[in-house]
Fold Molybdenum-dependent transcriptional regulator.
Amino acid sequence: MTDLTLLAQHVTRRPQRIALLEQIAEQGSITRAAKAAGLSYKAAWDAIDELNNLAEQPLVARSVGGKGGGGARLTTAGERLLSLYGRLQAIQAQVLQAAEDDADLQLLGRLMLRTSARNQLSGKVRSITAQGCNDLVEIELPGGMPIRAQITRGSTQRLQLQPGSSLVALIKAGWLQLSAPAQPADPRLNLLPGRIEQILGEADGPSEVRIALANGQTLCALAEVVDLEAQGLRVGSMVRVQFAASQVLLGTQI
């Protein structure tokens, strides 16, 4: 099963996201596409970020700001995904017609994982190194960007991980530490350089910071505005994102 097929199955469980992709292809605007798909502007950005992060290549090419709230178009990979989705819909209809027991369908629904982790990054296992009762899993993100995850030996076996295995790395937004590039880095932590794309402030809590990585993936972090200002971090600034290997959760397709 190809990565594109797995991604199409992921999107199939969220039909609003397919509607969003269809509307982006038609409208060429994130604002208009979100409205037509029944999503808020913020929810549309979240959906685009997650889909681009899960794909080997970005599905949507975006431009921030401008007339209409930012332009958007499907990439060649996005167009292929929509075509594949149409074929999967036809197959799904045949499967549903052949289903003998609704309980089986309900069980399949429970097995389709949803997670509260804002950051879901596709990648492949580069290597696995034993560290006592744990394993240090070296992961290669699209574009060759490396991160590390520390998991138990039992988790490695249960996920059937080995070099070359495809997986999804899950990282909560609150676990990401942001700092200016000039600040000293902690060599014990994962480090991903990026550029601040958006800062969405909240009146009663930390701001949501969207960070564009060089490989086309996007991270979402939480940070206090006063801390960002103290480091001179603003929209357009280069930023260093760090997080511990123990804070990277791993998932694979069932």
In short: Residues 3-98 form a domain with the Arc Repressor Mutant, subunit A fold (CATH 1.10.10.10). The chain has two domains: 3-98, 119-252. The chain is about 35% helix and 30% strand. Residues 187 and 197 are 25 Å apart (CA to CA).
